[in-house]
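To start, one record:
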Amino acid sequence: MTGRYPIRYGLQHHVITIAQPSCLPSDEVTLAEELQDVGYSTHAVGKWHLGFYKEECLPTNRGFETFYGTYISSVDHFTYWRKWSFPNETISGLDLHNHTTLGLNPAWDGIGHYSTELLTREAQDVIRRHAKLEKPLFLYLPYLAVHAPIQVPERYKEPYKDRIADEERLTMAGMINCLDEGVRNVTDTLKETGLYDNTIIIFSADNGAATHHAGNNWPLRGTKTTFFEGGVHGVGFIHSPLLPDQIKGTTSHAWMHVTDWFPTILSGLAGGDINMTKPIDGIDAWKAIISNAASNRRELLHGIDPISYFEPLFTGRAALRMGDWKLMLGDLCQLKFLCEWSPPRESNITSKKPTEPRNKEIWLFNIARDPLERNDLATRRPVL
């Protein structure tokens, strides 16, 4: 949303929680604000998660004309109720909101409707309303799926019941099934309204899967919240009739960091200028995407967190990728499952346990040669 690493504005430690008086600082410029400046109509449907403790933090004050969705994560996918317990009190309430030009409203009418289906319908409504306008559209659709809690209507699990015995994995498969259907329905609505032929659809994961919540990163090492490849190696696709024929159906192995979407969308697609008051960390990757070429990115920061949210369980940690090399700092295996190779539960494969010594603080991997991070080279390569 900013094209800048979270360390630039103090949000690198953990997600913003239910009672945390924090948000994306008001002097940070969002992609939606920049796109409005070049004539786009901007709408957000789904999870905001950039703060809500005061009104200026809300999405309709950060560049979006309308917003329908939740402020934080891990809400119930049917009731949209969220509870957070403290030593002396518990906070709970509805987290489903409808922001329009008429004001900020709780979306009581959404209760009982499964989140993926509900958000899909809202996105379809945005597209249908926008089709009557002459402006270009930016629709930001961060679904709640497939985030915990792991829930889905029973009908989406039916195709997999003969193949997956583990109930949580079965539910995860159903969640993905429903998400696939949602993406198809949004795409069909773009076609029905005549917008599809001039639309670029970007689908991107925000992190690796949570293996402790039925996710699967196999054969990569690690899980969500870690700097191992299972935690940071995301997948995605770009779909559009505007793409050159020679790259349709191909796979790009070019580097791309989530910060790159800001300049790629603003400059590469929308024709805006990257004249920011603060330097951005993202790199415009559009030319690399449409030519299936190597990107201009040569290094990226996975993160620096000297005061880990999980203290005292974890100490600070950091990870930097430079060329083929990834350097990580910190005791990353205090909980063994965080640095294991975890196969899907329905497989007959046994988890591979870490072999590194306890209290190890420096890690070095050549990701090009060792993408599964099995051979730590920190002691053998003190100098690259």
In short: The first strand starts at residue 41 and ends at 47. The chain has a mean pLDDT of 92. The first helix runs from residue 31 to 37. The chain is about 20% helix and 15% strand.
